[in-house]
Design a protein that fits this description.
- The structure is a single chain.
- By secondary structure, the chain is mainly beta.
- It has 3 domains: about 45 residues, no CATH class; about 110 residues, Immunoglobulin-like; about 140 residues, Cadherins (Immunoglobulin-like), CATH 2.60.40.60.
- The chain contains 1 helix and 22 strands.
- The strands form 7 sheets. A 4-stranded antiparallel β-sheet has the order 4-10-7-8, with no helix packed on it. A 4-stranded antiparallel β-sheet has the order 9-6-11-12.
- The N and C termini lie far apart (about 75 Å).
Length: about 300
């Protein structure tokens, strides 16, 4: 229930009384009990000391969809030594920090810079989000006399969407199969597209990174290896959603003017560290998939 405390103030100049007054001050139930009017007045001017901090719920977000321009509210609760929520001014500001360095998120207080921190329970903290696909973002609050508290903002990410040749049977994983190292001929190159919500759209225009890895039990035809059979454009980290995989003519087999038959895993990495693996294969007229040192391996059926 609401209650109040009496106060009395006298202003003196030497021995002369300049002004005197008394009355009552309404206080919320969460306010501490003061031992004197002087202590009450001092607390009202300086704010209440913060003993502990806590976060409220964090807004849900989906990569590719930005928050409204005004942002979404974040709740911060400051409590006094008695464990009661502080209503009014704080003795020291609550610092708010955002770990994101990509520019996907930012914090404001009442629509303005958050650099000065929260100084009162009446101020509102807002979270802004552009929709960029990012991993977990750590939000931190801290204040003098209280332990810092963290919470995590985690946008819901979308998988990388692939469009291009696939292997059979189901579930038809992504696969590019080459069988010629003569430019302009069938089997010399293959292409695919890859997109991701919150990453490749014009509003974000971010690039995929990719790397290569050998496949266990298969001849390693990966770029950068001892028998590279593939060349991929655009380069890793360059903008674009369309990719071309072509047979490499940089290395020739000693007895056959073509790259070694074999396989390689191309691993795309997008926003929020989402990944997609595309298997690259190279076959010759006499050597099958996975062949090495003259071994003829299996042939694959393909869905295109």
């Amino acid at each position: 229930m609401a209650w109040s405390r009496p106060w009395a103030v006298a202003l003196l100049l030497g021995s002369s009384l300049l002004w005197a007054g008394c009355g009552t001050v309404p206080l919320p139930a969460s306010s501490p009990v003061f031992s004197s009017a002087q202590e009450l007045l001092r607390a009202g001017l300086a704010g209440t000391k913060i003993a502990s901090l806590a976060w409220g719920a964090v807004p849900h977000a989906t990569a590719g969809t930005a928050f409204p321009a005004a942002g979404k509210p974040l709740t911060v609760v400051a409590e006094n030594a008695a464990g009661k929520k502080i209503v009014g001014s704080y003795a020291s500001p609550i610092s708010v920090k955002d770990s994101d360095a990509s520019g996907a998120t930012s914090l404001t207080i009442d629509g303005k810079s958050s650099s000065g921190g929260l100084t009162s329970s009446s101020e509102k903290l807002e979270l802004h989000y552009t929709g960029l696909a990012v991993g977990p973002v750590t939000l931190t609050i801290s204040a003098r006399g209280a332990k810092a508290k963290q919470t995590t903002f985690v946008p819901e990410l979308s998988a990388i969407v692939y469009s291009g040749p696939t292997a059979s049977p189901a579930p038809h994983p992504p696969e590019i199969d080459l069988y010629s190292n003569v430019p302009g001929t069938s089997g010399f190159s293959g292409s695919f597209t890859a997109t991701q919500a919150g990453w490749t759209a014009a509003a974000f225009d971010r690039a995929f990174r990719y790397a290569f890895a050998g496949i266990a039990g298969k001849s390693d035809d990966c770029p950068g290896g001892s028998h590279p059979a593939f060349a991929v454009t655009p380069a890793s980290g360059k903008p674009g959603t369309g990719f071309t995989v072509a047979a490499s003519t940089a290395l020739q087999h000693a007895s056959n003017p073509a790259p070694y038959a074999g396989e390689c895993a191309m691993i795309l990495t997008g926003g929020g560290s989402e990944t997609l693996t595309i298997v690259l294969t190279y076959t010759t007229s006499s050597v099958g998939i996975g062949a090495q040192n003259g071994y003829t391996g299996r042939k694959r059926a393909h869905k295109r």
